[in-house]
Amino acid sequence: MPRQLITSGSPFEAQVGYSRAVVQGDWCFVAGTTGTDPETKVMPDSVVEQGKNALKVISKALEDAGFAFSDVVRVTYYITDAAYWDELGQATAPVFGDIRPAASCVIAGLVKPDMKIEIEVTAFKG
After folding, report:
1. Which DSSP symbol is given to 111?
2. For the domain bounded by 4-124, which CATH number is listed?
């Protein structure tokens, strides 16, 4: 089965050399996605709003690939401060609360100082 590359149209994809998502067979791998508002291109200050924005972009990538959040089997959260963990559920529980994918959370520095969260997912249809 051929590999399918999904783009969000971000100039960073070509600049850095990545796809928003890659579909291989029954699998969809969505790249780490930060919280810039997909319409206004503004980075909100709130980790909750950043998380919601990242999930909007991820949702579109999954949809473009023929997948849905219900297909997500793995999610990784990268946050820049452990204190954000308690707030993060406000953004993620409405999406993943019933799906309950395997999850990890890593405290890490991100590319820009205003970025507080990055989310990546893996989805499977089988």
Report:
1. S
2. 3.30.1330.40
Check residue 1 and give its pLDDT.
74
Give CA angle at 30 (28, 36), nearest 5°.
Answer: 155
**What are the extents of the domains in the chain?**
4-124
* 103 bridge partner residues: 75
Residue pair 77/47 in contact by the 8 Å Cβ criterion: no
For the chain, list residues with pLDDT below 70.
none
At 11 the pLDDT is: 82
Q: Are strands 72-79 and 102-107 parallel, antiparallel or unpaired?
A: parallel
CA distances in angstroms from 25 to 5, 21, 39, 110, listed in the order given: 12, 13, 31, 31
